[in-house]
Amino acid sequence: MFRILLLLALGVGAGFGLRRVEAVRRVEQTTRLTLCLLLFLFGLTLGADRTLLAQLGRFGSEAAVIALSGACGSVAAGGLLQWLLRRKGGVR
Amino acid sequence: MRENALLLACLAAGVAAGAAGWAPEALLRSGLAMGVLGALVLQVGLGLGVRGDLRALLGSLRWPMLLLPLFTIGGTLLAMLAAGALLAHRPLADVMAAGSGFGYYSLSSLLIVEARTPAVGAAAAAQLGAVALLANVLRELLALFGCAYVARRGAGYAAVSLAGACSMDVCLPALMRGAGERTLLPAALVHGLVLEVSVPMLVAGFCS
C-alpha cells in the first residue's frame, strides 16, 4: 500500500520535473499499454491455476452472487453519498 | 467501449494462454505482476505531474471524501446481507467476510483461510477461501470494466465505490478518464487507502 503511494508520489515529482519533455507528455498511451499487459499477466495467472479453474464451475455462481451484490451495494452507497452532498451543495 | 473490449481481449488472451500451458514460468511469478502494477502507478503519477497543477488538485481534497469509504463499506455489507439470504447454506459471517475483500482478492482469501481453519477445518476453510478468491477477482473485473462507464454517467463517487480497494491503483486510470481527468483523484486515493486498511480488520472481525 505504502509502496503504491510512494510510487505515485515519485511519478508526480518526476512528471512535474519533466513536464516540458514531449515524450513524458504522451504517458497516457503507455499507461493504457501497461494496463493491457497487467491484465494479460493477470489472465495468465488465472488460466494457469488449474485448481482455480476447476473451482470456477463449482463455486462460480456463489462467487458471482457475492461479487455482483458487493458491486451493486457499493455503487448504490457511493451514489447516495454523492446525491446527499449535491443536495447540500458540497460536491459537483 | 472499444477500450474495454481491448482490455477484455488482453485478459481473455492471458486466460487462454495460461490454460493452454503456454505461459513460461517466469511470467507467472507474482513479482512480475507487482512490478507491472508499480510501473502503471508510476505512469499515473507521471501523467499527473506533467499537468503542473498539483497544488490545485490537493486543494480539492474535501472532508466529505473521507465519508466515501465508510459509505462503500456500509453499502457492501448491507448488500452482503441480501447475498447471505440467497446463499442460505453458508453462514452469514462467511458471506460477509468474502464480501469484505472489496476486490483485494489475494489478501482477503488468504486471511479467510487462515482465520477459519481452526474453527471449521482446513478443507472447509480452503473452500471458503476459493469462493472469496473468485468473488473478489470478479469484483475487481467488474470494477475495472465498469468504473469508467459509471464515472462518465456523472456518478463519480459511485464509480470510486465500485472500484473498491483498487481505486488507488488498477482502476485509477479508468476513473480519471471516465470523470474527465483528475477530478476524482483525491477521493480515489483516500478511498483506496482506507479500504485496504479495512480489509484485514473486517475479515478478521467476521471470521472470529
Write the layout of secondary structure elements.
The complex is a heterodimer of chains A (92) and B (208).
Chain A (H helix, E strand, L loop, with lengths): L1 H16 L4 H4 L1 H22 L1 H39 L4
Chain B lengths: L1 H18 L5 H4 L1 H22 L2 H6 L4 H23 L5 H8 L5 H16 L1 H31 L3 H8 L8 H7 L6 H23 L1
> What sort of overall outline of chain A do the alpha carbons produce when their principal axes are compared?
flat
Give, in order, the helices and strands of chain B. HHHHHHHHHHH
Q: DSSP helix count of chain B?
A: 11
Count of distinct strands of chain A: 0
Helix content of chain B: over 70%
Low-confidence stretches of chain B: none
Beta-strand percentage range of chain A: under 5%
Content of β-strand of chain B? under 5%
**Oligomer status:** heterodimer
Order of helices and strands of chain A: HHHH
Radius of gyration of chain B: 18 Å
Class inferred from helices and paired strands of chain B: mainly alpha
Please outline the major beta sheet of chain B. none
Mean pLDDT of chain A: 85
How many distinct folded domains of chain A? 2
How widely separated are the two ends of chain A?
29 Å
Low-pLDDT windows of residues of chain A? none
Largest sheet of chain A: none
Number of helical runs of chain A?
4
- Total strands of chain B: 0
Instruction: Report Rg of chain A.
Output: 20 Å
Describe the structure.
The complex is a heterodimer of chains A (92) and B (208). Chain A has helices at 2-17, 22-25, 27-48, 50-88. Chain A has 92 residues and is mainly α. The relative contact order of chain A is 0.04. Chain B is an all-alpha fold and 208 residues long. Chain B is built from eleven helices and no strands. In chain B, helix 5 (64-86) crosses helix 6 and helix 5 (64-86) packs across helix 11 (185-207). The radius of gyration of chain B is 18 Å and the shape is globular. The N and C termini of chain B lie far apart (43 Å). The model of chain B has no long low-confidence stretch (mean pLDDT 86). The chains are: A mainly alpha (92), B mainly alpha (208). Chains A and B meet through helix 1, helix 3 and helix 4 of A and helix 1, helix 3, helix 5, helix 6 and helix 8 of B.
